[in-house]
């Protein structure tokens, strides 16, 4: 069971980026607002700007379209999966899920397209599906940083999605 070498390589890598089909298609030409999560499209990227959203949400000046994050949530298009398991996890579940939640809030401030699609229990594990590979990596790294344990990353063929396993 020596996957240690591989794990080490994976963990020291910088964040990887997958090809994201939702980013290239239907990119707005100017500014836009997402009516669901209040993300704002400006300067060719989606960001959080609640003041801008409030200013234009009731006007016709800025078109309203669902951001790629919300579209992925609607269509359940996951690019990351986080699997949490183990006796330590079971015992400290509430605390660990709080940490996950806080990390998620921070990630969304940087990038509103980082969204959690759903969370559920399956085969004794807690599974979190995310709209970006980046968010899944970030959540896995945060848990590992706080609680150690075993963290491993598995990329699908063509790096279309990542599966993050944390166990302790
Ligand atoms: Zn949105």
CATH class of the largest domain equals Alpha Beta
Ligand identities: zinc ion
Main sheet, how many strands, which sense, barrel? 5 strands, mixed
Residue-averaged pLDDT: 87
Strand content range: 15-25%
Name the quaternary structure: single chain
Give the helix tally.
7
Protein name: ATPase
Topology, pairings included?
Blueprint: H1 4-12, H2 21-24, E1 32-33, E2 39-42, E3 45-48, H3 50-56, H4 68-75, E4 80-85, H5 87-91, H6 93-110, E5 116-122, E6 125-130, H7 133-147, E7 150-155, E8 162-167
Parallel strand pairs: 4-8
Antiparallel strand pairs: 1-2, 2-3, 4-6, 5-6, 7-8
Name the features.
Alpha-Beta Plaits, alpha+beta, 39% helix, 168 residues, BCAM0308-like, binds zinc ion, three-stranded antiparallel sheet, five-stranded mixed sheet, 2 domains, elongated, 7 helices
